[in-house]
Design brief:
248 residues; mainly alpha; 8 helices; 0% strand
C-alpha cells in the first residue's frame, strides 16, 4: 500500500513537470483557458450560491436557538455566522463539494480521452498532451475558484440576513450588528489564500487520475471516484496545515 502510494506520488510529480512547460501556442492556451473557465466555473456558480444561501440560513437559525441567553451579547449570532462562513465553510467545505462536482468532471473527461486514444493521437503528432489538456484547466481553476469562494461568502451572509428579515427568530438589525462587530479583514484574505491551494489540488489530482487511466469505461469511473477521494483527503490535510501557518 505504501509502495503504491509512493509510486502514484512520483507519477504525479513527473506529470506536473510535463504540465508546467511553456505552451507551444499561447493563443490556443488562452482559448482553452476561456473554454475551461466557462465549462468548469460558470456552471458551478448556481450550486455554490444555492448551497451557501441555505447554509448561511441554517447556521443563523441554529446559533440563535442554541445561544438565546440574556447573558450573551447581542452581536453573538451575526458574529458566529460570519466567522463560520469566512473561516471554514466558504473555503474548505465548499472546495470539498467542488472536488466532487468539478474534480469528477475533469477526471472523467480526460479519462475518456485516454481510453478512446485521443491523447495518444496528440502525443503522436508531437503535442505535449499534458500541457495542452491540463494546464488550461489548472489555470482556470486557480484563477476563478477564489471568485466562487467570494460568491459563497456573500451568499451565506445574505442567507442569514433573509432569515433575520423574514422570520421572527432574530431581528435584522441585531444580525447586521453582529456581522459588523469585531470584523477582521484578514479572514477574507485567509479564505482566498486557502482557495488557491485547494483549486490546484482539485484540478491537478483529478487530471492525474484521468490522464493515467488504462482500460475502458469501468476504469474511467473508478478514476473519477479515486480523484474525489484523494482530493478531499488532501484538502482536509492542507486545511489543517494552512490554518496553523496562516492563523498562528
Amino acid at each position: 500500500m505504501l509502495f503504491q502510494s509512493l509510486h502514484h506520488f512520483g507519477d504525479y510529480i513527473l506529470l506536473q513537470k510535463r504540465i508546467f512547460t511553456v505552451p507551444d501556442r499561447w493563443s490556443e492556451f488562452f482559448r482553452r483557458f476561456i473554454d475551461e473557465a466557462g465549462s468548469l466555473i460558470i456552471g458551478s456558480i448556481a450550486i455554490v450560491v444555492t448551497i451557501s444561501l441555505f447554509i448561511g440560513a441554517v447556521i443563523t437559525i441554529q446559533t440563535q436557538l442554541n445561544v438565546s441567553s440574556p447573558l450573551l451579547p447581542a452581536y453573538t449570532v451575526g458574529l458566529v455566522t460570519r466567522d463560520t462562513l469566512l473561516l471554514e465553510f466558504s473555503s474548505s467545505i465548499m472546495c470539498l463539494l467542488l472536488a466532487g462536482k468539478i474534480g469528477s468532471n475533469i477526471a472523467s473527461e480526460i479519462g475518456t480521452m485516454r481510453v478512446t486514444e485521443q491523447i495518444d493521437a496528440l502525443d503522436i503528432m508531437g503535442v505535449n498532451s499534458a500541457n495542452y489538456l491540463i494546464l488550461p484547466k489548472i489555470a482556470a481553476m486557480v484563477v476563478f475558484i477564489p471568485v466562487l469562494v467570494v460568491f459563497s461568502m456573500a451568499a451565506g451572509l445574505f442567507g442569514g440576513y433573509l432569515v433575520a428579515s423574514f422570520t421572527s427568530i432574530i431581528p435584522a438589525s441585531r444580525y447586521i450588528y453582529g456581522l459588523q462587530s469585531y470584523f477582521t479583514e484578514y479572514y477574507i484574505w485567509y479564505t482566498i489564500i486557502k482557495s488557491f491551494f485547494f483549486a490546484f489540488v482539485i484540478s491537478s489530482v483529478a487530471s492525474y487520475f484521468g490522464y493515467k487511466v488504462r482500460g475502458g469505461a469501468l476504469e474511467v469511473g473508478k478514476a473519477s471516484t479515486d480523484s474525489v477521494v484523494v482530493s478531499s483527503v488532501t484538502i482536509l490535510l492542507l486545511d489543517v496545515i494552512l490554518t496553523k501557518l496562516l492563523l498562528q
